[in-house]
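Thread: Newbie trying to understand structure tokens

Hi all, I'm a second-year student working on a class project, and my supervisor (Dr. K.) asked me to get a predicted structure for one chain before our next meeting. I've only ever worked with sequences, so writing a 3D structure as a token string is new to me. If someone could post the tokens and maybe explain what I'm looking at, I'd be very grateful. Here's the chain:
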Amino acid sequence: MADTTSSQEQAPWWAWWSAAVPGRTPWLGVAPQSLDQPINPGWSFGNVITVNSVNSTAPDVERAVVSQHSYGRQIGRLMDAVAALADALPQTATDNRVKVFRELEAKVEAIKKAMAPERVERLRRELQELQRTDQTGWDSLKAMFK
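---
Reply by user tm_fold:
Sure, no problem. This is what the structure looks like when written as tokens:
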């Protein structure tokens, strides 16, 4: 015999709790009976870049390259090369594309400069940790700077 009640008329699976303990609502009662929500649409956590056959013709090669040379390093070297070319060709100074590039270059340098104190602090903490945990390594490092 077929069930003639709709899913809307059926009690939720935790209804036994309310029946067993009158006047009490189970803690699960605060949860919706149905949830249809996309997980993480258009978001990424951390420095995550997905490389697959949808966005790369050779994802295995790209992963191997990035494991040795980060995207930041690759872009930084390209920016250095473009700056060198623009310096060698003074006639490009009036080209709007070069002007926009120079603006980007200046902003990147400003960010690097602003981040320098944080990098120095991180290095200081790492050196303190080395001194605390590896006296031989610490002594070897000190000897390099004498």
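A couple of things are worth pointing out once you decode it. The two ends are 90 Å apart (CA to CA). Residues 105-146 form one domain. Feel free to ask follow-ups in this thread.
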